[in-house]
Amino acid sequence: MLKIVLKTLLIGKKSLTLQFKAFDMKKTILIAMSSAVLLFSSCAQEYNRVYKSQDYTYKYEYAKECFANGKYSRAVGLLTELVTIEKGTENAQESLYMLAMSEYCLQDYESAAQYFKKYYERYPKGYYAEQAKYYIGEALYASTPEPRLDQSPTIQAISAYQDFIDVYPDSKLKDQATRRMFELQDKLVIKEYYNAKLYYDLGTYFGNCTSGGNNYQACIVTAQNALSDYPYSNMREQFSILVMKSKYQLAKMSVISKQMERYEDAQDECYGFLNEYPDSKERVTAEKYIEGCKKFIEKHQKDPMYVPQI
């Protein structure tokens, strides 16, 4: 009986101890939270005091401290005013660059690009001129859309990088800028491929052909232009496949007076494709098309209805 009582007392003591520990932990958390709230409130009050201050030297130094500590939102609030107030002073140049970089770090790339441009226009020989010129491209690069969307921002970013390379041909950032340009050009290539593929997939649908022609012709023109504009693209084969397939389909659907000429053109395209891509996954397709073209040409080459009139 005594053992049971002692055991019960020990269990009760242990439970009480755990309760005290849990209470202490909650108390510690509450204290930490309270401290954080007080600290945040204190920082907010300090920021508001600086923001309202007319001591622009103090405000400038505080903005630099915010920027250095990664408090970019606060830095932007102060620097936006300082860029105007400090214009013409020694602090103006650094204020504008920090403002641009703060916007960039906050992922407001449109504003960042504008401020980097403004910096370079005001201070083309400034201390941060090279970095600002480069980051115009970086900000535009970060805001480029995925390939299926309008690629105007991509073209602007490529132009910005090219301008940077032209102005700073010996810059340490030249190689990175060049890589970015190639990457963005690949995005333009993909966009053109999507356009060409869409025309091919639309095939014989004429609802979108409001200005004459047809989808296969549009696919051929779009793909050939891409091959001309981006001769070193790693998507050359994909574009060539679309041209080959479209020419064959165009020949099949053409009016009688144009069929012979287009079948001959499709046959030449297939042979050219096999010469350039002998190991292509579409080799069988090219050989099948060649056979189809030969049969048509042999069957109708003496028929005046299929011979183009001169």
Q: Could you walk me through the main structural features you see in this protein, from its secondary elements to its overall organization?
A:
The chain has 310 residues and is mainly α. Among the domains are: 53-143, Serine Threonine Protein Phosphatase 5, Tetratricopeptide repeat, CATH 1.25.40; 204-300, Serine Threonine Protein Phosphatase 5, Tetratricopeptide repeat, CATH 1.25.40. Helices cover 77% and strands 0% of the residues. The protein contains twelve helices and no strands. The chain has helices at residues 2-52, 56-68, 72-85, 90-105, 109-122, 129-142, 152-167, 174-202, 215-229, 236-253, 256-276, 283-300. The N and C termini lie far apart (123 Å). The model is unreliable at 2-10 and 34-41 (pLDDT under 50).
Helix and strand topology:
Layout: H1 2-52, H2 56-68, H3 72-85, H4 90-105, H5 109-122, H6 129-142, H7 152-167, H8 174-202, H9 215-229, H10 236-253, H11 256-276, H12 283-300
Q: Shape from CA axes?
A: rod-shaped
- What is the overall pLDDT average? 86
Unreliable spans: 2-10, 34-41
Number of β-strand runs: 0
**Mind describing the biggest β-sheet?**
none
Search tags:
Serine Threonine Protein Phosphatase 5, Tetratricopeptide repeat; disordered N terminus; mainly alpha
Can I get a quick summary?
This protein is mainly alpha-helical and 310 residues long. The chain is built from twelve helices and no strands. 31% of the residues are buried.
